[in-house]
Amino acid sequence: MDQTMSVTVISPQKTLFAGEALSLSSQNSAGKFDVLPNHANFITFISNDIPILITKVTREQLTFKFPMAIICNLDNQVTIYAQLDISKV
Length: 89
Fold this sequence. Notes:
Blueprint: E1 5-10, E2 15-28, E3 31-35, E4 42-47, E5 52-56, E6 61-64, E7 68-74, E8 77-83
């Protein structure tokens, strides 16, 4: 089994991150959640600048905050579709 998962964070303006990760953590309307390698297929909506934490294979942690985002995990590939405030790009 894979010990990592592919994560891509994209907005209409650009790709913000693409690489391998050990985990992803955030919070949706049902509560806190983690996505780990080989996680069941999963889709959720994140809003209100709730942090999305990605732990890279180097153990470095990246934090993203968006007004709105959709997190989709399909076959060990996580894609985060994010809305960006273009004034901050």
